[in-house]
């Protein structure tokens, strides 16, 4: 009788273990929620999920960097417009019809435009200055790191002012006007180069983001094929395991009851 009782108890434990195993699988949706469900399959699933997370974070990094560069590009674009306006103002000052007061008024506008260039260079993203020459940026991705160096778009960096912030644009003489045109042309070329460089980096980041998206989808499909649980089948198995467990418990109770009755009769 003791052997039969032990057999019933083993059956209860076995069916309960099967139930708990199925419950864990169903609750996670994974065929291998731990290494005990298959060490190699579990390891493959963990690695795939790790790669999925890395690809998603890489995509987030590229998109965040693109947002930062949008801010920088806006500042540089405003500077390009300001320098184009500055060039027109200098050409206006060069016209022989101007009186001294006209040239003085144009000089004042020129100085204000140079101040605007410095305003444009003060743009920030998340507290980081972007166009003062200090921004050396890194884009971290699953396939390595990309460095992005933004130029110095301040008036001094573009050669419009000296190190003390004094304007190099002097419209009081013809020689000064000629030199001013050269200075502004050089600054405009530098700003255009910066604008096109930022555009090229953004284009590359857009391509990288699309690649990361494709990579993530492929990894998710592969992981799903490898590890997704057949829920309908598992629920059916759980129902069967519940029934078997209840029958085993009933049999164990019946055995214990009968055993107790026999012992009572023997007393």
UniProtKB/TrEMBL annotation:
Protein family per UniProt: Belongs to the bacterial flagellin family.
Function: Flagellin is the subunit protein which polymerizes to form the filaments of bacterial flagella.
Organism: Schwartzia succinivorans DSM 10502
Gene Ontology annotations for the cellular component aspect, listed alphabetically: bacterial-type flagellum; extracellular region
GO molecular function term, any single one: structural molecule activity
UniProt protein name: Flagellin
Keyword presence, Flavoprotein: no
This protein's UniProt keywords: Bacterial flagellum, Cell projection, Cilium, Flagellum, Secreted
SUPFAM superfamilies: Phase 1 flagellin
Domain spans labelled Flagellin C-terminal: 181-266
């Amino acid at each position: 009788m003791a052997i039969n009782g032990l057999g019933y108890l083993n059956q209860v434990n076995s069916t309960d273990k099967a139930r708990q195993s199925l419950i864990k699988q169903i609750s996670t949706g994974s065929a291998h929620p731990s290494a005990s469900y298959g060490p190699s399959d579990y390891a493959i699933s963990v690695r795939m999920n790790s790669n999925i997370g890395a690809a998603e974070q890489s995509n987030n990094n590229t998109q965040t960097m693109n947002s930062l560069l949008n801010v920088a590009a806006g500042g540089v674009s405003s500077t390009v417009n300001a320098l184009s306006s500055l060039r027109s103002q200098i050409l206006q000052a060069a016209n022989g019809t101007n009186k001294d007061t006209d040239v003085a008024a144009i000089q004042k506008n020129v100085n204000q435009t140079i101040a605007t260039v410095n305003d444009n260079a003060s743009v920030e993203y998340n507290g980081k200055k972007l166009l003062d020459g200090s921004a050396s940026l890194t884009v971290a991705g699953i396939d390595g790191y990309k460095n992005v160096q933004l130029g110095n778009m301040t008036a001094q960096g573009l050669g419009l002012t000296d190190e003390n912030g004094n304007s190099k644009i002097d419209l009081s003489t013809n020689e000064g006007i000629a030199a001013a045109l050269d200075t502004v042309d050089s600054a405009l070329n530098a700003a255009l180069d910066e604008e096109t460089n930022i555009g090229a980096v953004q284009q590359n980041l857009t391509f990288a983001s699309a690649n990361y998206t494709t990579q993530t989808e492929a990894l998710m499909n592969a992981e799903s094929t490898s590890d997704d649980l057949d829920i309908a089948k598992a629920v059916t198995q759980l129902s069967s395991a519940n029934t078997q467990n209840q029958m085993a418990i009933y049999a164990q109770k019946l055995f214990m009851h009968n055993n107790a009755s026999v012992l009572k009769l023997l007393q």
